[in-house]
Amino acid sequence: MQLNRLVSFYKTLGDPTRIRILSLLAKGPLHGQALAGKLGLTPPTITHHMNKLKDVSAIYQRREKNTIYFYINEDVIRRGSSALLSLIFEREDEKKMDSSHYEVVRNFLNQDGTIKQIPAQRKKKLMLLRHLIKGFERGIKYEEKEINEYIKKYHDDYATIRREFIMANMMYRDSNVYEVNPEELWAKIE
After folding, report:
1. Rounded to an integer, what distance in angstroms lies between the CA atom of residue 119 and that of residue 127?
2. Which long-range contacts (CB under 8 A, 24 or more apart) does 124-128 make?
3. Which domain of life is it from (predicted)?
4. Cα 151 to Cα 121: distance, rounded to the nearest angstrom
5. Helices marked H in the chain — which ranges?
């Protein structure tokens, strides 16, 4: 989650009515009329708040016949919360995990630090990507050309590695401008 997306997420949740909506949806799905009745609000007001919550993916909806039910997106709420905590507090356990992963990564590196081969196993590939992405700073926007030049130092197939960064949620891309996501959003190594 980019910093500006994280800020947008918290701005959206910074409304008492939306917090009340989320606490109701945490107990189970509801339709708009039920929410309006429970909160004492008009349906257009509920629609306004639901659209704001959908914009940051805090909720999702499903249609059953002629009724639309709203559900809380618990995973997004939890990721947003942990992203903020991680952004503010650096976690010591992540540092320890990185050192143990380096032992695996070392098997895929030449002595000069270039990549011998990209691992086929997802877990090892994610470890290698974590190693490579350390060369980028959080909060800095990088042009695609800069990303390519950095990756070329390690491997000729910069397009594949760049794509893997995006697929593993390690980077966010918008109009050929890249930014490193907070680690909580990165694909988990299991």
Report:
1. 9
2. 125/164, 126/168, 126/186, 126/187, 126/189, 127/101, 127/189
3. Bacteria
4. 20
5. 3-13, 16-25, 32-39, 43-55, 74-88, 92-106, 122-133, 144-152, 158-167
Tens of pLDDT along 28-69? Answer: 999 999 999 999 999 999 999 999 999 999 999 999 999 999
Task: Name the amino acid, one letter, at 35.
Answer: L
Number of neighbouring beta carbons within 10 Å of residue 21: 25
If one looks up domain 3-76 in CATH, what number appears?
Answer: 1.10.10.10
Mean pLDDT score of the chain, rounded to an integer? 87
Look up residue 184 and give its two tokens.
Answer: 């909580």
Q: 147 with 162: CB under 8 angstroms?
A: yes
Q: Is 47 exposed, middle or buried (0-12, 13-18, 19+ CB in 10 A)?
A: middle
> To which residue do tokens 């659209």 refer?
51
The CATH T-level fold of domain 90-185 is Arc Repressor Mutant, subunit A (1.10.10)
Over the stretch 98-141, which tens digit does the pLDDT of each residue have? 566 777 888 888 888 899 999 999 999 999 999 899 889 888 99
